[in-house]
Amino acid sequence: MKVTAYTNSTIFEQLKPAWNDLLKRSSSDLLFLSWEWQSTWWGAYNAGDLWVLTVTSDDGELIAIAPWFIQHRDDGRVVRTIGCVDVTDYVDIIAESGKVAQVYPALADYLSRHTEHFDWINLCNIPEASPTYSQFPDALRKVGFEADLILQEVCPVIHLPDDWETYLAMLDKKNRHELRRKVRRAESESKLEYYVVGAEHDFESEVDGFLNLMRTSQPSKAEFLSVPENEAFFRSILRATFERGWLRLSFLKVDGIPAAAYCDFDYNGEILVYNSGLDPSVKPHLSTGIVLLVYNIVAAINSKHRLYDFLRGNETYKYRMGAQDTCVYKMVSRKRESVTVA
Fold first, then answer.
1. 112-169 pLDDT, tens per residue?
2. Can you tell me whether residue 304 is helix, strand or coil?
3. What is the pTM assigned to this prediction?
4. Which residues pair with 29 in a beta bridge?
5. In CATH, which of 3.50.30.10, 3.40.630.30, 3.10.20.580, 3.30.530.20 is domain 2-153+327-335?
6. In Å, what is the CA distance from 269 to each residue of 29, 31, 94, 263, 293?
């Protein structure tokens, strides 16, 4: 088994033919670990010194990718995962299922022998179900590292039933009543147009419309998009995921005026709720954001998706829609100081 480090961004093109194939064979098949996401993020942010580690078997087969970089901070040189931390909800080591027991010790051994490149390790947004969470800290401890797992955030999810009425029955009486009331009121008071962007639409125009709704929804989102790298990343990743058929960009118009939008991803039978936009000046009493969310959940149920993932954040509306928490963790590790006995 061989571990190799790559420090030039040409590694993305070099690994492109094999990257997503390995991802499909891994136990961490996440949209945010796809070649499209990882290469787009790095191209937009270039956040340090690239340090992608690959693991190949004795016969040369690619069995793992640790998509890392080294960030230079006031507290030292830190190993981070590409995507950390604000715009990427789950990240991990990509390791072929069935071979993680060999991959993690190999990576830990490599790290222990190359500590001249870094001072400590901070891997963000590791899903609780990942073998990285359950196995990698121990692999590091065995080669002289301290390793701690720290709860980072929650990711509320809805396990979708087979039909809408069963979904409603999952909610408590008050939330069920409120959903029905809001949808009835909006549909009775205004002309609603709901659509999902497809090949028949002008994609760039629809992205402009979504970003405009993002800006108007919250000052914090407007501030985020005022950073050129952030807007460039959004435009690039929306295009890349649209071309792969992973993007689900939905809009709700009220009497012909764009009122709300959701940027979701459709991956592996799951809907990932990534971001949203809202014009609060368009009939705010109609709760257009919630109405659009209801339409999207109905669509997900009808298309037999099994999970509706709200991603990171514990906003109240997620729980009113019936979501339950899952967790992501960060792993913090550094080499133990050697102790000299007099």
1. 999 999 999 999 999 999 999 999 999 999 999 999 999 999 999 999 999 999 999 9
2. coil
3. 0.96
4. none
5. 3.40.630.30
6. 12, 11, 20, 16, 18
